Amino acid sequence: MAEDFNVKLTDKYYTPDPSYRQNSWVGDYNKAYAEFKNDPDGFWDRIARDLHWFTRYDKVKEWNFPHARWFIGGKTNITYNCLDRHVMGPRRNKVALIWKGEDDSERIYTYRQLYREVMKVANGLKKLGVSRGDRVCIYMPMVPEQIISMLACARIGAVHSVVFGGFGAAALNSRITGAGAKVVITADVTFRRGKSIPLKHIIEEAIINAPTVEHVVVLRRELHQPVEIHREMETDFYDLIKDVSPDCEPEVMDAEDPLFILYTSGSTGAPKGIVHSCGGYMVGVYYTTKNVFDIKDHDVYWCTADPGWITGHSYVVYGPLLMGATIVVTENTPDYPDPGAYWRMVEEFGVTIFYTAPTAIRMFMKLGEEWPDKSNLSSLRILGSVGEPLNAEAFEWFYRVIGKNRCPILDTWWQTETGMHMITTMIGEPMMPGFAGKPIPGVVADVVDKDGKPVPPGTGGFLAISEPWPSMLRTVYNDDERYKKYWNTIPGFYAVGDLAVKNKDGYIMVLGRSDDLIVVAGHNIGTAEVESALVSHKSVAESAVIGKPDAVKGNVIKAFVILRNDHAPSDKLKNELLYHVRITLGPIAMPSEIEFVTTLPKTRSGKIMRRVLKAKEMGIDPGDISTLDE
Ligand code: WTA
Prior knowledge:
Layout: H1 18-22, H2 29-38, H3 40-48, E1 59-64, E2 67-72, E3 75-76, H4 78-87, E4 95-100, E5 106-110, H5 111-127, E6 135-139, H6 144-156, E7 159-162, H7 169-179, E8 183-187, E9 189-192, E10 195-198, H8 200-206, E11 215-219, E12 234-236, H9 237-240, E13 253-254, E14 258-264, E15 272-277, H10 279-291, E16 300-303, H11 310-322, E17 326-330, H12 341-349, E18 353-356, H13 358-367, H14 370-373, E19 382-386, H15 392-402, E20 409-412, E21 423-424, E22 438-439, E23 445-448, E24 461-465, E25 475-476, H16 480-488, E26 494-502, E27 508-513, E28 517-520, E29 523-526, H17 527-535, E30 540-550, E31 554-563, H18 571-584, E32 593-596, H19 610-618
Parallel strand pairs: 4-17, 6-7, 6-8, 7-14, 8-11, 11-12, 16-17, 16-18, 18-19, 19-20, 31-32
Antiparallel strand pairs: 1-2, 3-13, 4-5, 9-10, 14-15, 15-25, 21-22, 23-24, 24-26, 26-27, 28-29, 30-31
């Protein structure tokens, strides 16, 4: 299988300066891994003891295949560990959050200030009738209030469901109704490349058939042209927190209570509501933020992800705040007003840890070295990547041009479902470009065939995980059958849905998805979701969607469309279909190419063979087509 992907297995390791390992939290990888293997529960117990529990758990885990429970009987609140703990200690006046806007404006919160704001919004939500267990949808741009709203929900035990601001009304509606959200928090606009893009009207459309929604909270940003607040349903964000107390006791949560739901694309049209827990998730992201990023108190940490994705949940918000770190957040795009924007921020804030996505790195490569070279990047000490494979060329460029041949690169493999990093090259260990690395201490993973038998080095197979871990998803919201599927595809394993190959040293290279997901610029898009959006247009009879390799985005979407009899192909119709996908699913799911066809390759049972379309598109052998219906 590896041959199909043209995998080049190089033998070139990059070895970081020994001081990285000597000074790291994790120390020697092999030793840490052995400690975990000898006593997995003891390993996680030692980590969990760093955090505050209102009531200590009496057991680390209960594994009842395929359901795990962690920190049984433990009571906690993640915001207590993210905020109170620091405010009561020496980090009270430490900067928690530096936010930068497109217009160069800055907002800075110390831990104490963030703590007060979170408690005010928490009390505001209580005023709206939100209580423990209620779902709150957050659909906001990357502003401090997005993070504050997430923490405010967690403070009172409400379950947040953050939806990325690039989703359209139909995608948003299915996520709101799926979670049964009582309140939606949004903003009037998001600023992007010098323009303001309205958000509120998308919410207005998305809640038309969403009967559970009782209130919409609107953050009004464009002060010179304020949008109208429809009082019967909507509340101004600032009114919500006016005259409320800045004190709000943390709700005492059971370790297994849900902390949040986050929707991710699945292989059917309906997205999956991945459910994470209060206790296990907290321990998993705390552990990885500390040991993978090796965060120290003097670090200035910048993860460029939007909190609307899991990377933002775990490594913009919860992980770094659990560590008491200083985080940088911006609404800026990397190439606006010019391609030097991010590098100036690195210099300006003295960023020491920089975590981004391969698609951004490849874009920077294309824009040229002169842009990063204009800024002083000497503050950087660690680089990271997530979301899709970091190909060897992009690794080498990132290492040389941004890291100045000095900074280790963490290519972190993980998923919405895993909650935390699972595979990477731990700090100080030799790095192999193109390979994410090994399972981190705490994780047991391998490359196996469909029967769960490990495949030899150099042979492709399925990436799979064999032991439960604290921050694993607990279920798929209202659909436990879909949860069970993860554990029932490959006997004895959690099947992650990625293809991978190992080298002789056990380093894992992730090759791409084995299912019907397409990773576009690091965002997972389900083929079925795009297909059903297309079919919902009056002119479309049938459609099939594939991912096509792209030098910058990793993949782009190509759609094949069969029209209904009374419609003829035209460029105008193509644009209409693109617009239709933009409005329903959102700009992130738009195909970059549409081709009108009269038939689609199908199996005799009527399933579309996307693999055959893809092979034809790329001019390669489609493989076994014995099931193809002539
Ligand atoms: C892909 C993002 C290769 C993979 C945290 C996975 C990666 C999916 C990497 C999860 C990586 C993520 N190397 N592929 N370092 N990181 N992926 O749920 O296909 O948005 O299954 O979580 O992204 O995407 P998700």
